[in-house]
Write a structure and sequence with these properties.
Layout lengths: L4 H16 L4 H10 L1 H18 L6 H29 L16
Length: 104
């Protein structure tokens, strides 16, 4: 990858994810910055959405098959991303350690 391309790739991947989750844009940004797996999902989503947007340019013999394939990828990625977003909102509460028998 040439110098400077990574920033624009990151930006377009983040923009793609934020477009699907506009009400959670700040959380998407935070996950994108902190979680490499989520960032990868965003990049895959951007690529699949772009491919889906250009499916009409494909030959008639493969157009519908590719439309279904790319739409399925987008749906699967969105589901996985919803789960990641939901999991990031979970707050784990720990019980205090047991220190021994309590006296009355």
């Amino acid at each position: 990858m040439a110098s400077g391309e990574s920033g624009s790739t990151d930006s377009s991947a983040l923009e793609a994810a934020a477009a699907y989750f506009p009400d959670q844009a700040k959380l998407v940004q935070r996950l994108f910055d902190a979680n490499e797996a989520f960032q990868s999902m965003c990049e895959d989503l951007a690529a699949a959405a772009q491919a889906l947007a250009h499916v009409e340019q494909l030959p008639d013999g493969v157009k519908e098959l590719r439309r279904l394939e790319y739409a399925g990828l987008v749906d699967a990625l969105l589901k996985e991303m919803r789960e990641a977003i939901s999991q990031s909102k979970v707050v784990m509460l720990r019980q205090p350690p047991v220190t021994g028998p309590r006296s009355p």
